[in-house]
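hi! just following up on the protien thing from before. the input was this:
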Amino acid sequence: IARRQRQMCIRDRNSIHVIPISIGEKTNAKPKHLHQKEIRIVSAHRMCWEKNIDGNLRVIAQLKSLGHAVQYDVYGDGPDTGQLHYLIDKYDLKNQVNYKDKVDNKIYKQQLADYDFFLQLSHSEAFGASVVEAQSYGLPAIISNSGGLPETIVDAKSGYCVDAWDVQKAAKLIDELIKDSDKFYQFSEKAIQFSNENFTTDVEVEKLLKLYHTLSND
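and the predicted 3d structure came back as:
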């Protein structure tokens, strides 16, 4: 019976087809160079405990302690917006952090080109379309290894994946990219390539059509 159950489980797994959500049309973004006066970091998410607001802000505090001039903008709304403001005061980040609230996605995309890094150390995450979206504009992404987030980057090539609690490592990896402009440029280039080759509307349609044809022939 156990052997039969294992065989059924294998067949069930083989019948599962995962097609990632698309982020829209292919972008024409060019690989980025770091801003010279200050490092610009962005997050975009719902304001709730799953998004690890505290961890993200402690990364910014770590970068500040390393002597970096940092601007960190946070987009989104939700029940824990008050926590964001409380923690900004707690970590003395009033001059570094700007809360942008929720904005239209079209406006948000227009702003992405003005940033250097995308930060998302979520405790829990299904996939993370905002991570892919940011990479499509050339932003290396620093993310946690929660849920489906690791699937949204090429680790150590278009971004870095760390434990959600490891803010020191996240800050250290950002610091290393800041200090190596050639490596940052390569990450930016890979981020654009990875997003455009795997998560555009054309790719999603192609995979759906392939799935339909496969199912119709079974």
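The longest strand covers residues 39-44.
Confidence is low (pLDDT under 50) at residues 5-10.
cheers
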